[in-house]
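Field log, afternoon session.

UNIT: design team B
ACTIVITY: writing a sequence onto a fixed backbone
BACKBONE:
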């Protein structure tokens, strides 16, 4: 039987990473939700970078660059990590390579990049990702980006959702209390995640920035099928088949959420 575990923040990654060669990075509000949305809406690939300076250098080299710090677009960039921006500007960004740096998500990707396979997860691609992980049948570590190396609720809920799906399959088990806690937090929240997270720190932070539409979108499960995977320096679509029935269901969810 394979293992699924949830690590709550990059600061704890070194305590968990041994024996895991498949890592799923999640940053629900909003980096990984934006990455999944961008690739689903025609962006060719995304280069995650750890610093604003690196993103600026790539911008000067001709790449489209996106930079976010503390929930806001960094001055000098016209994209941050809003998933809705990649829908609204999909015609303009189709086929482009995006250099992306964010407060938490790209940091988590960077520390996991030495692993054999690094996937990007969100609530948006939850079912597609869970199905893919079941098919791979390898030990999986979910790495929550958290907030500046600290625990946050939204990533824990998403990690718990992934763990719940894999454990319920009978193919996976969890040994760590962090995973069991994440699973039960998800089960407490799943019927109304928007309300459950009302008092959470990052939702309050984004509300002050008038980003409630982003939050609603990021907390909509299964409106995407794209599973980003890290190949070298770039995030690209992972080729994982999905049935016509599942695709039709996802299209219905997507239309209802927009």
């Amino acid at each position: 039987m394979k293992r699924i575990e949830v690590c709550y923040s990059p600061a704890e990654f070194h305590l968990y990473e041994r024996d895991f060669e498949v890592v799923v990075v999640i940053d629900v509000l909003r980096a990984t939700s934006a990455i999944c949305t961008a690739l689903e809406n025609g962006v060719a690939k995304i280069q995650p970078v750890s610093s604003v300076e690196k993103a600026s250098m790539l911008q000067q080299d001709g790449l489209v660059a996106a930079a976010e710090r503390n929930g806001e677009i960094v001055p000098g960039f016209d994209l941050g990590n809003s998933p809705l921006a990649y829908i609204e500007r999909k015609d303009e960004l189709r086929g482009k390579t995006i250099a992306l740096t964010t407060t938490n998500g790209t940091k988590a990707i960077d520390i996991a990049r030495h692993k054999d396979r690094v996937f990007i997860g969100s609530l948006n691609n939850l079912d597609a990702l869970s199905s893919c992980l079941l098919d791979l049948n390898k030990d999986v570590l979910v790495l929550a980006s958290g907030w500046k190396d600290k625990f946050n609720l939204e990533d824990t809920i998403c990690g718990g959702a992934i763990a719940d799906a894999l454990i319920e399959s009978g193919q996976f088990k969890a040994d760590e209390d962090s995973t069991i806690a994440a699973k039960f937090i998800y089960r407490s929240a799943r019927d109304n995640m928007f309300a459950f997270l009302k008092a959470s720190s990052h939702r309050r932070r984004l509300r002050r920035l008038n980003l409630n539409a982003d939050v609603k979108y990021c907390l909509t499960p299964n409106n995407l099928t794209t599973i980003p995977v890290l190949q070298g320096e770039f995030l690209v679509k992972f080729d994982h088949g999905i049935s016509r029935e599942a695709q039709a269901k996802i299209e219905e969810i997507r239309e209802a959420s927009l």
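LOG NOTE: The chain has a mean pLDDT of 92.
NEXT ACTIVITY: expression trials, pending approval
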